[in-house]
Design a protein that fits this description.
29% helix, four-stranded antiparallel sheet, alpha+beta, 5 helices, two-stranded antiparallel sheet, single chain
């Protein structure tokens, strides 16, 4: 916000300026079969106001849109091309504790990705962890035990 904008806020009686949307990255899963599908989706999203970049990855069926946009409007625009679309439902596999649990593993997911589902985290107070920490170098009382 520049100095003139700051001063003009004090001078105007009513402000009709709308608040600018924050910069966002929207990831959408879109089934694309050919170059024509890819081109149609990319041109539909590029024509939206506020879009800065559009990356289309047909192999992963993924469209990444960056800019000052509303995610729901981007999804609606992609669906208006006649393609089935949804928000990107996957996360990288290395971020999940149990990637092969039912509901997380998806055969249609791109390589290295699993579905983003709520999972139980491994218990950190397991008995074997307590035994291992008894004889650890980090344990101050390890010398008295030995």
């Amino acid at each position: 916000m520049g100095a003139l904008d700051y001063i003009s806020n004090f001078c105007t009686v009513t402000s009709t300026r709308s608040k600018r949307k924050p910069m966002q990255t929207v990831e959408i899963k879109v089934k694309m079969d050919c170059d024509g599908c890819e081109r149609r989706v990319k041109s539909a999203v590029n024509s939206m106001k506020g879009v800065k970049t559009v990356e289309v990855n047909r192999k992963q069926s993924r469209v990444v849109v960056s800019g000052y946009v509303d995610p729901n409007k981007v999804l609606r625009r992609v669906k208006s091309t006649g393609k089935r679309a949804e928000f990107w439902p996957y996360i990288p596999q290395h971020l999940v504790h149990y990637p092969y649990v039912s509901g997380a593993y998806d055969k249609r997911a791109p390589a290295g990705f699993v579905r983003n589902v709520v999972q139980a985290y491994p218990a950190s107070n397991a008995p074997e962890d307590n035994i291992v920490s008894l004889f650890s170098d980090d344990n101050v009382n390890a010398c008295s035990i030995m």
